[in-house]
Please model this.
Amino acid sequence: MDLIAVVALPPASANPSTAQLKHRVIRNALDFLVASLGPRDRLALVTFQVGKSGRVRKTPFLSVGRPGSISRLSGFIDSMSNPPPDTSDDFSVKSAKDEIVDVVTAVNHGLDTVLQRKQKNPISGMVLVCDASDTSRKPQMDLLMARTEAASLPIHSFGYGKSHDPGPLWLISNATGGSYTFVRDWYELQDCLAGCVGGMMSIGVMNLRMHAKVLDDSKFRIKKVAGVGGAVVASSGLDVDVSVPVLRFGERRELVVELELDNRAPLAGSSHHREESMSATDAFVQRMGLGIDGLSLSDAALGEGMMDAMIDEAPVFEVDGGFFDPGAGKTITRLGHPVLLTLAINPPNERSQQQPWSDASIVRRRAELLSHQMIMRAIVFVGRRDFSHAIQLLVGTRTALTNILNTSLPPPTSRTTRKELVTLAAVRVIQSAMADVSVLVDALEDNPEGFGREWRPFGAQQVSFSLPPPVRL
Model:
């Protein structure tokens, strides 16, 4: 694995006691990263100070398995709080006079290291740690987005403390397929980095590309795919391409595929439209003269009734795909055999008067996507200082989640069936989403002006899990 760590350091004008504490927290976190990587992994470090004439220092990719590289990394980490002068510092990066250093500048230096490497490991990633408010402008951000697309690696950002601006960090991470994490307590920075780097070490599949194709004789059409950012649905509704950057061992991605059914023609296999012709068995019975012509298998009271009571299956679509296996270093262009999705058609039951309930898993996923999208839009309103629309949107979202909980799921029972357990799990997830929305509503109503400092990072973190389209916060 090739890992680049871009870390913001306190500027020279910071409070000495605060700067000393932050240096200690960052040094412990970086020492942990060096000790956690394997002998074949490589690490590059970039440190920067936000502000005018801020200092930038960086290392090339250094192999953790070599003693000389370990010595250089340890020396870089130990000298962060008191670096040598620029003229005698091997890690110092020359910059223009009075240049304003910000997050974009630091990430660009990290991308320089990535784009200039002559060899690379199968897995690459960048972690961005920042505690300062950002001063980058839109042209700088647009150029950075183009470079990250060329580098093709995820950037996982960590905003710690209440003084940082989550907007640029969330935008960079979301555009590169990374994650944004709000570290409220400084001492939790090491644990958050451990979870992120551990997830990168657990990657089992990269560049997964799935293709779903509706079968020719099917009456279904794909209308929409939710839950993933890289889904392209054909205008005919017969094909859809889905791209997933990475999948980790034990990870499950839930996609909601919305289908529409063309009711103008019957489904294949429908018992009401079967061809009524004498079968070979009926002809044999009549020739034998057994005297049971009234009990022919083609009799409406017997034959059609038996067919109506049978369960039929209708094929919907098949899924094929390819991926890259980083462990084996091989690219799989297609699966051994495509996966077929079929829909069971149950016989009509006129005696059953029970209310049909939606599947609990689909209801849960729809509620998750709804809450995440509405939180994202509310945070955009907060960034524009439109607090009234943000509150109105979040209150409406909470009401919608309450209605989903009350009307879309069956009432609880005393049975412990698998269906009941799935329903209870869906209820817990929807209640958690309602709790997140309620926290943001209360914070906006109590202190709108302080929401950006206290709760905006929390909302941006909740949004990052739904993979929405890039939006400037």
